[in-house]
Amino acid sequence: MTKKATILKRIATLLCMVVLILTMFDLAVFADEATTTASQNGAGGQSAGTESTTGENGTDETYWKYVAEIQKSIRTSKVGKYGMLPVYGQDVKDGTYEIEAASNSQYFKIAKTELTVKDGEMTAKITIPSMSYLNVYMGTAKDAVAAKKSEQIGFKEVNNQTVFTVPVEALDKEIEIAAFSKARKKWYDRKVVFDASSLPDGALLIELPDYELIEDAISAYGVDEAAAAAAIEEQIAENTTPVDEEDPDADPDEVKEDAVLLEGDPVPVDINMPDGEYSIEVNMVGGSGRASISSPTWMYVKDGKAYAKLLWSSAHYDYMIIGDKKFLNETTDGGNSTFTIPIVMMDEAFPVIADTTAMGDPVEIRYEMTFYSMTVGSKGKIPQEAAKKVLIIAVIILVVGFVLNLVIKKTRAKKR
């Protein structure tokens, strides 16, 4: 082989390696990058049951009423003292203090709090005596879903407990903190109050209200303690919607048999991402368990709305129903059934109906699907898309090898 042919062969080999490495890099790294930027920027969701909107058919209010019945957002009673007034950073001496903090959730107990005050700004290290949560967000669960990854706060593990360092707007004030469950892959609303009265002597630059005096004043008006407590509880619970709290460590695959089927035209959730194609993890439960859908699957964003393309493990599904709308099988070549449906909520299971002809007569089967906002990534993470890339790599290698072979033959012919 001539020197020129050897050089050409090495160049071609290097080219193949570069193409292969770049494609593998795209599969393994770019997809993860998309997860930490695009998806964790947020698969934003419309907060079902918190407010009604009016869509094209004018029926969204009724529709979201039913969605609310299967939402498990936590809106429990308030936490803290009755009549408490906020205490801000400028009212506390600079320093680091151990103080008490209370949460409104039995699943978000705070075992220890270390408050740091500097130049009027306050932060707190809160210790949760479990490993149930991966991230927290200063705000509501609805806002956390749409938030950027950089706005979320990760944890440090200390003695099998999670420690979050969070900004503190004020003491003696309810602070919204959303917490992301590791097991259920969803955000939960929590409320926390940092107790100013638990600061050591000399730390406060102001005097706190006498909360005991407030209670005495209520009694002084001749109101018995039971009635006073009931009145206070009524005021505290005002503008809240108490529901049964959901255990963030509970089995996420448990079928909620009492979940009400959606009504009206299904409305896709809003999502804070550019229009395009992505991947998303989806979980499906229900039926006999023999049928499944591919995960991760395709997620399409169009006009700021989220849609999913589902690939079933069977070719016998001919339609799906969400709300009052029927979606037909898009596969026409006899392959496994595929459907493009709106994602009506993120991080919450919602019921669907799928019709199968596998048993002869058509049978409508109920399933529940959950799309996980934190798993959104590049479409390269979808197995079918990855297979396409592998095929492209093989074709490129074959083409480069064929060209290389021609070059070598021509070089040898010239040598003769």
Summarize the entry for a quick read:
Helix content is about 25%, strand content about 25%.
- The termini sit apart by 12 Å
Strand content: 25-35%
CATH topology of the largest domain: Immunoglobulin-like
Number of domains: 3
Which second-level CATH architecture of the largest domain applies? Sandwich
Could you tell me the radius of gyration in angstroms? 29 Å
Net shape: flat
Number of strands: 20
Weakly predicted, low-confidence segments: 20-60, 62-77, 221-225, 238-244
Side-by-side strand order of the widest sheet: 1-3-4-8-7
Please outline the helices and strands.
Blueprint: H1 3-41, H2 60-70, E1 95-99, E2 101-103, E3 112-118, E4 121-128, E5 133-137, H3 141-146, E6 153-154, E7 156-158, E8 161-167, E9 175-181, E10 187-194, H4 211-220, H5 225-236, E11 276-280, E12 282-286, E13 297-302, E14 305-311, E15 317-322, E16 325-328, E17 338-342, E18 350-356, E19 363-371, E20 377-378, H6 383-415
Antiparallel strand pairs: 1-3, 2-10, 3-4, 4-8, 5-6, 5-9, 7-8, 9-10, 11-13, 11-20, 12-19, 13-14, 14-17, 15-16, 15-18, 18-19
